Amino acid sequence: MSESAVMNQSTSEPQPIYLKDYQVPVYLIDEIDLHFDLFDDYTLVKSHLRLRHNRLSDSKSKTLVLNGVDLQLESIKLDGRLLSETDYQLSDQALVLQDMPDNFDLEVVTRIFPHKNTALSGLYRSAGTYCTQCEAEGFRRITYFQDKPDVLSRYTTTITAEESRFPILLSNGNPVESGKLENGRHWVKWEDPFNKPSYLFALVAGDFDLLEDKFVTMSGREITLRIYVEKGYGDQADHAMYSLKQAMRWDEKAYGREYDLDIYMIVAIGDFNMGAMENKGLNIFNTKYVLAKPETATDDDYIHILSVIGHEYFHNWSGNRVTCRDWFQLSLKEGLTIFRDQTFSEDMLSPAVMRIREVNGLREVQFPEDAGPLSHPVRPDSYIEINNFYTATVYNKGAEILRMMQTILGKTLFRKGMDLYFARHDGQAVTIEDYVKAMEDVSGIDLRQFRTWYTQAGTPVLKVEDDYDAENRVYRLTVTQQTLPTPDQPVKKALHIPIRMGLLDQQGRPLPLSLDNGQPVTDTVLHLTSTSQVFQFDNIPCAPIPSLLRNFSAPVKLELGYSDQDLQFLFKHDTDAFNRWEAGQKYALRLMLGLVRDHQHDKGLALPDEYPDMFGHVLRQEQEDKFLLAEMLMLPSEKYIGEQMEVIDVDVIHTVREYVLHEIAQRLQKVFLETYQHNHDVSGLYQFSMADIGRRQLKNRCLSYLMLLPGYEEIGLQQFEVSLKKNMTDAQAALVALANRNIPARTAALDSFYQTWKHDALVVDKWLAIQAASKLPDTLHVIRKLMRHEAFDLKNPNKVYALIGTFGQRNAVNFHSKNGEGYAFLREMVHQLDKLNPQVASRMVKPLTAWKRYDKERQELMREQLELLLHENKKLSRDLFEVVTKSLKEV
């Protein structure tokens, strides 16, 4: 963006920034020395910059543009000379200096007000603790700077504060000096030996409980590990430390990546917009992804902590040592690191279950995003506010692209490509092309067509037809790909799509597809590169049943004319665990969509015996992976069912799914009860192990079915009471079931839960979310009451996500009530949030943006709320303006 655009953007409608307009920075900042003086009412920030003209820049300009937002400028010195107001231009977005020399020093002093910073971007206060969040553009709220990822600098940071209240002063790198000052203040100086972009800067000042440990790297270096948590929560950091050490060892083994500083720190903060932030050597985490003990955290909490701790650690190389040139390349670090943390979690836990959960998230969030008004490529062409592009497309679809690339190259060549990428670009800010080029160089494979995945939005649909020639023992698959038009991309190109597959005979045995060194190959990859291709398999002795897209080898929708019997067969016999689960989901989806059509035409609902029999079959198998079994007993969500319909019929979907759940519960109640009792630990004690997780997940899935039926409330109540103070997984499972029943025990259980855990913020978030997700018709009334409860705070993102986010995104039947109350409520909340925290506001408004998918009455109600947001507010944030205007745009 030009300096004139920066100066004028605050006085006009927000304008897009385009990838095609990228230019290298005219000036580079080699060193920045920061001094922070922290006081209650303000913070003084002195930054000393050493700058030089960038020899790679073609620009003849001698103008320096430094970004700055919500800063009070105190003074500027150029090479020691104090500048007057006539020597620079100042706006609410930037500081601009003209006719600068080729090499110079700049000293800038700013005054900022962290206690007033409700946006939680830059430096802010969280419950008496100072902390930062600088990704994507938070550093410009701290001092004037070229707040771009391609400006890499070496940082030294000195922090001063009152020692009694802020005994711990942290920043990036290694501590090098410290001392005492007058009036009870002290100081600490940190040096980061690695150049980094400003978005990776971090500062924390406060008083914490500390968990410390050591890690010895593969080369024998000893690393100090420190996890800082709020006072009184030191007993909840053990799992985070375990996860960190596992991630460090895994990254050495899987990618040969060793940690590079002497100290690695994690700080848990209660007010945080994101899940966590990978700042070099000083990760700042949302408390929900650090704190865990059996009494307060569920299996899912433990799993998420493992994943997120791993994710931020893996960023040390894929994002920090090698960073992105500009924000359009965001998936270069996030998609890659998501892929790394996914494979880490798969290795540490159940590979099949983790893959199922990854795909469920992709289908329920990213696929609708790809098909809606906010659709964008993994590498967008433009944005108004970069915070809006921390999306499932950039992260999760980006990860799927990396998974496909690994499938195409094979794991050995993919690892070599990663090694070359890190070696070639260490210490650089690079592009997606740089990454793909490393993969091409090690493999010799031309990936030009494959790169289209990064630039083309939309979810491809694969239509498959098969044919078996019994006389010649030839089996053929004809595969056609199509990607529908998306906003700004009406014409789509054919993609390179890897399809992992196998064939099964009528007894469920794998059929050989080819020979490798004389050994039969029963699993292979088809490379679809044209709009339509035919794949032929010779010497197939019988008509096979195809198992396609194994382990979900590409982020596509697959259409193949399986019969009901084929899907039941694959559910029982497929040798690919993911595809066994997938067959059950396809059958359930087909069945429920049929029931939806029946209900819409006033036909009675009838569930065929085959579906409950499928569940009964897998339950009686007592298979080893009970975690996987628990997943196989789940029905597709109401959200996913709706995504398969041209017009989403919220009420009928809910009615049909509830009917199917009750029918399965009724017909299988005996086997559900037996399975529950067999896997239930009456002591209620908790242990984090795969065997115990599997048993808990399976028995709680059975409990969720049983609690739909009269006469089983006592089982749920008993589990709740026994586990309330010692096993949150079991307590929450029982409470969720109770919260969806209109029975006297419901209110008592919710009250008991709150009174027991009201002093633990994360557990209270669970209490809020459980009520917000309730199927009962008075849920919105309950939510409005909870908005006034002592437990809720609109300024805290975790509370907002738990109560408002859960209602809008996970409670379709109540949010989409025909009277439009849910829509009006969300608009009211988004309006208030936009004044406090624009990032959170733009995330909360997302359920309204899918308005075109619903019936005409709901469309009008949802669109009305979006238009009210746009026209009744005097000034929307850039974050919210972009989301609302795009969703209202007519295609």
UniProtKB/TrEMBL annotation:
Enzyme Commission number(s) of this protein = 3.4.11.2
- Every copy of the Peptidase M1 alanyl aminopeptidase C-terminal domain together lies at 564-889
Start and end residues of each Peptidase M1 alanyl aminopeptidase Ig-like fold domain = 458-559
- Which reaction(s) are listed as its catalytic activity? Release of an N-terminal amino acid, Xaa-|-Yaa- from a peptide, amide or arylamide. Xaa is preferably Ala, but may be most amino acids including Pro (slow action). When a terminal hydrophobic residue is followed by a prolyl residue, the two may be released as an intact Xaa-Pro dipeptide
- InterPro entries assigned: Aminopeptidase_N-like_N (IPR045357), Aminopeptidase_N-like_N_sf (IPR042097), PepN_Ig-like_sf (IPR038438), Peptidase_M1 (IPR001930), Peptidase_M1_dom (IPR014782), Peptidase_M1_pepN (IPR012779), Peptidase_M1_pepN_C (IPR024601), Peptidase_M1_pepN_C_sf (IPR037144)
Q: Name one GO molecular function term.
A: metallopeptidase activity
Q: What cofactor does this chain's UniProt record say it requires?
A: Zn(2+)
Q: Which UniProt keywords apply?
A: Aminopeptidase, Hydrolase, Metal-binding, Metalloprotease, Protease, Zinc
Source organism, top-level taxon = Bacteria
What are the residue boundaries of the Aminopeptidase N-like N-terminal domain, all occurrences included?
A: 60-200
* Main function: Aminopeptidase N is involved in the degradation of intracellular peptides generated by protein breakdown during normal growth as well as in response to nutrient starvation.
Family listed: Belongs to the peptidase M1 family.
Protein name, as recorded: Aminopeptidase N
Organism in which the protein naturally occurs:
Aquicella siphonis
